[in-house]
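Subject: mismatched residue count in predicted assembly?

I count 1150 residues in my input, but I want to confirm that the predicted structure covers every chain. Input:
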Amino acid sequence: MSNKAKQLPRRQFLKGALSAAGAAVLAPTIIPSSALGLDGAVAPSERVVVGGIGIGGRGTYDLGCFLEQKDVQFVAVCDVKEKRRTAVKKIADEKYGNENCATYVDFRELLDRKDIDAVLIATGPNWHATMAMHAAKAGKDMYCEKPVTKNISQSLILAETMRRTGRVFQAGTQRRNLPHFAFACELARTGKLGKLKKVYAHPAGMQALMSGWLIPETEPDKEVVDWNMYLGPAAWRPFNPKLLDGFNFEKGGGFIGAFNGGGVLEWGSHCVDLCQWAVGDCAPPVEYNAPKDGELVARYENGCELIFREKGWIPLGSCPVRFEGETGWVEAGDSGKLVLSSPELLAGREVAEIGGYPATFHVRDFLDCVKTRGLPKGNADAACNAHIACHAANVALSLGRTVKYDNKTNEFIDDVQANRFRSEALREPWRL
Amino acid sequence: MPTTRLFIRFTRAAVCLAAMLAVVATSARAADDIKASSEKEQELLAILRSEAPGADKAIACKQLAIHGSDAAVPDLAKLLSDAQFASWARIALEAIPGSVVDEALRKATDSLDGNLLVGTINSIGVRRDANAVDILATRLQDKDAEVASAAAVALGRIGNDAAAKSLRQSLASAPVSVRSAVAEGCVLCAERLHAAGKSADAVAIYDEVRKADVPKQRIIEGTRGAILARSPQEGLPLLLEQFRSADKALFQLALGTAREFPGNDVDKALATEMTRATPDRAALIIQAMADRKETVVLAAVIAAAGSGPKPVRLSAIGALGRVGDVSCLPLLLDAATDADADLAQAAKGTLADLPGAKVDAQIVALLAKAEGKKYPLLLELVGKRRIEATAALLKAMDHADKAVRGIALIALGETVTLKNLSVLVTQVIAPKRAEDAPVAQLALKTASIRMPDREACAAELTTALDRSPAASKSVLLEILGDVGGTKALNTIGLAAKSKDAQLQDVGSRLLGKWNSVEAAPVLLDLAKTAPEEKYQVRALRGYIGLVRKFPMADQERAAMCQKAFEASRQPAEQKLVLDVIKLHPGVETLKLAIKTMQVADLKDEATQATLVVAQKLGAKGVDVRELLNTAGLDKVKLEIIKAEYGSGATQRDVTAVLQKQAGDLPLITLASASYNANFGGDPLPGSAKQLKVQYRINGKAGEASFPEDALIVLPMPK
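Triage response: the counts match. Full output below for your records.
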């Protein structure tokens, strides 16, 4: 996180950036600050007791955001890797000046703890949806890193499960709580750009990613790395240490990219998610064409186009988006900058520039909703729609032709081949 | 025939023809797809039947999910008992449509046990095979709790009457270890029944689950379903029951479910419930009320904001920011001037957010006759809400209270247009009261950097600069620096070259940190012509900073680096240029580094830059051998101590090869560009490999790693 963002009190920071569109984009502080732990006086009954699962690089960043919150008590970590378990326990114990952070290899034991209210899920993407479903069924709220799902079916089941179980779900789509992205989406959503014609996402890599089945090596002791649990719902393959770090199971697997997300989903779960927000979180596009000249064009039911762009973006940092209406356009990216067709769209306001993509506000949004039971910005329905758009785009990419999607039946229309991409079996004994 | 009718008939015919062509095209594509898939299927099955490596069989299974048909089922079904391949086989089996797969999966349950049986049952559930209900109902009694649980959830996914019946029968009788899954299955069934219009049946099941001896989370799911599956009239009392529950989890369930509840009776009920709940709970109920934006009882939220326990008031005041309107204004203005700081702060926040043009109009109207605490509050709101009220703000600048004048100035900074910018300029260069000057400067800066037309704004400030007293000129220059753009750049450039020492200092400092390549020519000019050497150095460093910081083509960067060299009078700046070259390796910058090696004072640094750039380019696959041959690099004593090539635990000793090729430069040229060709073949096909070298140059030890096929330029050990 940039120092600038760190220094700004949350409320002031958000307000300065958001009010330009004439309406609050983010929910205001909603319950007394003492209850939210913002003034240092947090009653035990108001604390959110949190456990972490699969806390690696990104997860450690998320964990830092959680630990910053005074009303969070982080009590347990689960990881199939001993090194990570130990490292995260050290962070938590140092924070609290004790040795109370419990460690687990099997996440189900952590979920069985009745004192834990919420979990941070930051495993590899292979586990995200399955683990989120387990957490929900165990009565835990959750902040789950992205990509959240591996296919269309998982996306739908995720949303249904969160509704059914009444759990609070926040996808790790932290840009939904960043002022300049929120402002850009607000301009699009509230008609300030005129009737919306095109929304552009930039997944930066529309191809299958390699992973898969490597040469077998000697499996380490279970205490060091529990390979079986690491594989989890992914189809079996022999142990190889290269698959342990920075490896996203089944995002292509050297097999068929569209089965599990491929490159589209890696960044699409962010930038397509922002496009979905810009179009009012409506149902995903109904038509997806094969890529041409670095662009894959999808079309919403109302005619607005969602364009996945491979290259050729203005320098706005990673995850840039562009929203084009009949009377104006806006672009935003991780540089924190906004570019607008007309300065008048700012309505005389400044928008704070924030480098990077701090997740603190997103975590705070989650914790507030844990208490109020409201819907966080990256809720399961929103995540479901954005992920379906990415998965469906991947199907068009894999088949090299247009596919049409029916949001009522959640099937590709008259397309047996495309429909086979909608789901994938999980390895036993796992289920959603 | 009338033209219109002809046109309609033609259009109809064209539409029919287009539709027919589309059908033909689709059919042709489908036929082609089927043929291609059939051929592909046979290829894939041949792999499954062969002694192919496991990885190939796994891929074959995955591809059969796309290309497989009934013909693939026997081969795939055989793998269901294979612990390593069952999951791969089920990927295909779950995807292939038709009853043959269903039959195979059902049959497999006869002979499987443990996890493999669980996986097969899970697949049956995913496929919602209604013919499997009897098998699954029997498996509900399985001694293996995991198998019984899988059967329960699969029955829930099938969700027909028969499945529901067997699950309901098991709800009370199942062992504790299975009961949670049975309840989950029941809830899944109830959902399907409710969606199919059988709400009474669904309610019955939900009620059974919420009253069963099952884990709390299952009770929550049953209760939620029981509330929402009932008619609103019947569901509402059950919802309110949860609001009154002493159990926190059920109260939380009520908060969530209230947001989903249909109709607007619930809004009235929530308004009442809020008044009878404890303050902490009431504060949360208000948030649920405000999330029902269309039907919220606003009067109840306003009342809660106006009086009562503080936590409730705070929650209600916050909620008004989302659901309030102009009618809330009097109450919020009172709260914003309350003696309680928390309430006042919350109210100010809501006043800034409260949506609607009517709110703006009312604030302006109130401002005209406001007194006391309300007056500065309204001025502040004008600024925060960006309301056009320049006349009122100008009037406030004559107020006797300095604090009020300050608020008015800040509000002007936030609202003034270019047309009235001169008002703030005047406050800076000729303030009525000197004590207001600092706030006026801040306000002018705020206003200037938000002007849509920054060139026009810079022109206005430049004009002001000419008539400004010396003391204010620096302030205006600083603001111009924040505004940026061409006009500002030129104005500041002129100031830096003026005869005024203070302007030279401020101007050169602002240019030195300019954040656009547009400043490069101005800085280069200043580097040569600034009145004092220290400002020349400052300008040159600013110029080098631009070359370092901004993306540009290699050729352009090399040309700018060359100009920086030429303008440099001291080695310190020349070394900064070499640092830029090292940071941005390119063929043109490499040529410049090699050329610079001829400068005696810079020979060491230039040589290092040459090697660094060459190494980085080599790693990217750029062949720089010829260029390096022209560099005339100093000879060194190079000793290769150890060299290994490979990946992870698989390493090949290639020390001898490198020793043979090592010469008297920190650079090793292999016979072929391919490492594999030089090092006796690929030690680990399909993996990314590295070459690790331990060496000594002139007696100093060093280590370096190179990605496969990179140029081997050994860094000089320090």
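Confidence is low (pLDDT under 50) at residues 1-26 of chain B. Marking this ticket as 'not a bug'.
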